[in-house]
Amino acid sequence: MRTLCFAMWRQLLGRWGWLWWGLALVVLLRLHFDPTLGRAHLGGYLASVALGPSILLLRLGAVLQQRRRQGWPLEECLRNPSAWRAPFAEVLSTGGLILAWLLLACLGPHLPGLAQPRAGQELFPITVPQANADGSWTLDLEGRCPPNAQVLLTVDWLQADEALRSAGTATYGAADGRQITLVAGELAAWPLLPQEASQGQALLPPLPEGLELLRPLTRLSVDSPGLAELPRLLWAQALFFLPLLGIFLAWARAGRIRGPLAAWATLALAGLVALPGGNQDLPADALGLVARALLGVKAFLPGVDSLLATGDDFARHLQATSFASILMWWMLGILGFAAACLRRPPFRP
Amino acid sequence: MVDVSSEVVLQLQSLGLARGKKRLAEGLNLSLSKGERALVIGGNGSGKTTLSWVLLGLLPKAGGELTRPDRIGFAPQDPRFPLELRVDAYLHQLGTLQGWPARQTKEAASRTMERFQLQALAKERIGTLSRGWQQRVNLARAWLGEPPLLLLDEAQTALDPEGMQSLQAALEEADAPAALLLAPPHVGCESLAPIGLTLAGHAGLPTYTGEPS
To answer: Last residue of some domain: A224, A255, A274?
Structure first.
């Protein structure tokens, strides 16, 4: 098996491939964490790092196609009737490279001379509609949020009565027991219930008499992880990408699809899975219909999108992914691998 | 005591061949024991390659009975190679694919390279070899690990006289496996093995059959 894995590595990377990957990592680190030029934002870095496994998957597709031309399928058929060794070597070698890349990406930002991403809170604007009849507001959070997310409220005290204004504080609470103290001149942080965060919809109770909510200034506040959280975030990427290898092999080997095409199809599926699902109103035009159709397909796939939380707003997509979803995602990968191991002639009979 | 030389390795009884809906041959009879060899002669499109696919278990047979060993060494008519690999590295990979441990793989590769005088070219990339030497690599990979049956499709292709001698010597080794050679008529393969089957091809089903001497 070691011989087969080394052979795959040589084909995947080429002679100087490791040098290019090292160079790419150095460029990424300078790009994101340069003390002068870099943004030192983990979301951007995670997005760049996620390109690595994607490129490796495309490379595997090209290598598989090259191996077809080299007559390997016939040799596999003749020499390994149970047909698992070659796919296993492909998964092992590519999976190993993905893990090595993520490990390097994890260690890279700790190098001296690089700016460190700061942990803290990130704010995202949310649209607050007109108040309901009872004075409450139904908030659309545009997708699921982390369970510790809060809604930051800016309250206008000018219309409050004299007593309230002179006190400068007011109690603001909901029937479910949540309660905070509003202080004049300060932002108020309203905690979300876990189910509100997971559903992406929240109900703000009516403000005390005389206080007015400045709706355009309402923000969603989520904790942004710092560098200490990077290993966990990259491990989540590994959990996301490794099953893709099985799915890819199912298409390329069991489905006899050309390697590069199967790799692009797998990445398209990954993109669909990683699409953050929102419950916002989609327009009724053609683009809206496409988006609806994609979200409809996504509904049948495991909800593992937060494993691949990347980009500027990655913090708000960092939800705890359920073990059941991860298990289902991995089961898809394992089933794909099993399908790829079924023996079949190297041509259509 | 069992006489090993009389072990039947390959047996075809009224075997039929078809490619899709097109029937290529019927009533093929042949029996090969360990150490025996036979030649299948047939013109273009007569079903030689189809016969080899059926014997390898890659195509279903169209009737009749077929007894074959689990492991067959196959040298295809149009060999394909990973041209960037060295000869020894390629044979090692094939052995690993078969599930052999490293030492066994190394020994098997060494023996098969010796058989076809490939040792001097062991570190050469396959792509840099001439067509004749690539054919020797093709034969070497079929012999790798001495399978009980060899299936050699137009094995003589591109071989020089020295290569033909190597092939003949390999076929005539004391503990040589059974070998079925496939070739078009009049290419001089009759010296390698007696004619066992003649595929009539399009001109007329069924085929002439004979017993290897």
So the answer is: A224
- pLDDT confidence of residue B68: 87
Q: What is the pLDDT of residue B4?
A: 44
What's the pLDDT score for residue A207? 84
| Residue A114 identity (one-letter amino acid) | L
The CA distance from B74 to the nearest CA of chain A, in Å, is 8
Same domain, A112 and A245: yes
Residue A143, Ramachandran bin (φ over 0: left; ψ between -120 and 50: alpha; else beta): left
Chain B CA closest to residue A71: B80
Question: What is the model's pLDDT at position B213?
Answer: 39
Structural domain contains residue A346: no
Which residues, numbered 56 to 95 in chain B, qualify as contacts with chain A under a Cβ-Cβ cut-off of 8 Å?
56, 58-60, 70-72, 74, 76, 79-83, 85, 89, 92-94
For the residues A107-134, what does the mean pLDDT come to?
84
Comparing alpha-carbon positions, the chain B residue that sits nearest to A6 is: B93
Tell me how far the alpha carbon of residue B47 is from its chain's centroid.
Answer: 15
User: Does the bond joining B76 to the residue before it have cis omega, within 30 degrees of 0?
Assistant: no
Domains and CATH numbers, chain B: 1-71+149-166+178-213 (3.40.50.300), 76-146 (1.10.8)
One-letter amino acid for residue A316 of the chain: R
Minimal-distance CA residue of chain A relative to B98: A79
pLDDT tens readout for residues B102-123: 888 889 999 899 888 888 898 9
For residue A148, the 8-state DSSP code is: T
- Kindly give the residue spans of alpha helices, DSSP state H, lying in B63-130: 87-97, 102-115
pLDDT band at A146 (very low <50, low <70, confident <90, very high): confident
Domain carrying residue A169: 120-224
Same domain? A252 vs A318: yes
Please tell me the distance in Å from A72's CA to the nearest CA on chain B.
Answer: 8
B99 and A74: CB-CB below 8 Å?
A: no
- Extract the tokens encoding B17: 């061949």
Q: Which of A1, A70, A347 sits opposite B80 (nearest CB)?
A: A70
If one counts the domains in chain A, the total is: 2
Is any Cβ of chain B less than 8 angstroms from the Cβ of A74? yes
